[in-house]
Amino acid sequence: MRLYLYDSASRGKVPFEPADPGRVRIYTCGPTVYRYAHIGNLRTYLLTDLLVRTLRYLGYATFSVQNITDMGHMHQGQLELGEDRVIAAARAAGKSAREIAAFFTEAYFRDCRRMAFLPADVYPRASEHVPEMISLVDALEERGAVYGEGGYLYFDVTKAPGYGVFSGAGLGEGEPADRTGEAIHRHKKRPEDFTLWMPAEPGREFRWDSPWGPGWPGWHIECAAMSLKYLGSEFDIHVGGVDLRFPHHENSRAVVLTATGKRFAALWVHAAHLLVEGKKMSKSAGNEHTLDDLEKGPPGAGTGFSPADFRHYCLTLHYASPMNFTWDGLAAAARARIRLQAAFRRAALRETSGGNAAAALSAEFRGAISDDLNMPRALAIAHKAVRSGIGGDVVRSLAAEWDGVLAVGLLSESGAERERAGVGEGEAEEVPPAVEAMARERESRRRERDYPAADALREKIRAAGYDVVDAAEGTAVLRKIPGTRER
């Protein structure tokens, strides 16, 4: 089954055709490591994890690169005017910028493990690849695409083939964001031109020797140089948040196209924004939640949620759909995850059955994830599976297969998770096979509109110590009646 992905460059869903089916090459714009990753960051990086897991599920081998931006991009004197992320964090903590970057890099890796992200094959640090960036600027100079003075070098966007076509931003329509700050814009010929190299002032921690004097590279040259080193001038998929489409991805693409004449990434896949209670996350709003914040829970709640709960919450929406995080939404997602786990565990205890149905369900699941990583539909198929009557080794096999993509622990469950999600013991515990059989028979009678027989079976189930709750989607949930013993 062919994989289809939405390509931001062509603005449409296209069939995925890797240059080398034996090694799909992927680049992800990674974190700037000056603070803990917030849930919006993690939702973006989840996209790469789902993409890699889906590709592997479909039989492809992958090679994934995710950069770490671990150096600042402002002059020391500009920190009072605008925050340089790495250097400002270091100054506030009384540490070196390298110490701050190393600390938050490890914190990021820890969060990735908590979110069950598959690790990238390479995590290049920007600070360790400045020679490659200098070489790339050299190549651009040879093509007449660089100008500057006083140690400042800029990329002339008019030398880039089709600049603006990728993002839809036309020349002269506005000035792009530039991490180097406003003070050096006087050196530019036009607002869209961007910084390739800047001179280092005395006392600057991040500085390297270059043909243009001691200094440091601009932001957009970094990803271009690192992707070229590890993936070449043409690779399969570039991943990132939609906020990076312009100017960062437009500019990185322009650099590589101009320097090499090659197409750079064949497909560009972007994750949509995450809002919190309908608002953009910001420090001033106090809503930049981290995984630690989720585990503490909302103020006064007394209970929190696991990274797996948040992952499941994200899977209920398509990656290209904006997500509005709410505590109630997370709580609902946590309850749904625990109940789905419980349903798989109960099904696994039944007799092995339903091989043909499982094959059809597996094909449906494959179709869902192949359709631009449609995880909401994949989750719906998982729910459908536990209602289908399949059991034993058949359902265990499906759960293991699908969890290779979903990674929400379809067959694992703990009392602590149930308590945290607000799911009662009777809602999630293993139900005796005889009671399950009566519940299935009752469902059959209800579908046949034999309500007297269905009511009689309900009374038998109650006599066995369980109640039947008919859910809105037509699925019966068995709940142990408090204070009763199995009979």
Bin the helical content: 40-55%
Q: What is the top-level CATH class of the largest domain?
A: Alpha Beta
Q: What is the domain tally?
A: 3
The helix tally amounts to 16
> What's the pLDDT, averaged over the residues?
85
Task: Walk me through the structure.
With 487 residues, this protein is of the alpha/beta class. The chain has 16 helices and 14 strands. Strands 4-3-9-10 form a 4-stranded parallel beta sheet. The longest helix has 23 residues, at 327-349. The model is unreliable at 74-83, 424-428 and 471-475 (pLDDT under 50).
What are the main properties of this structure?
single chain; 487 residues; alpha/beta; Rossmann fold; 3 domains; 4-stranded parallel β-sheet; 4-stranded antiparallel β-sheet; 43% helix
Give the structure's gist in a few sentences:
The chain has 487 residues and is α/β, with parallel strands linked by helices. The protein is 43% helix and 14% strand. The relative contact order is 0.10.
List the helices and strands and how they pair.
Layout: E1 4-7, E2 12-15, E3 24-28, H1 39-57, E4 62-66, H2 85-93, H3 97-114, H4 130-142, E5 146-149, E6 152-155, E7 194-199, E8 215-217, H5 219-231, E9 234-241, H6 245-260, E10 264-271, E11 274-276, H7 291-296, H8 307-315, E12 323-325, H9 327-349, H10 355-370, H11 375-387, H12 393-406, H13 415-421, H14 425-428, H15 433-447, H16 451-463, E13 466-470, E14 476-480
Parallel strand pairs: 3-4, 3-9, 9-10, 11-12
Antiparallel strand pairs: 1-2, 5-6, 6-7, 7-8, 13-14
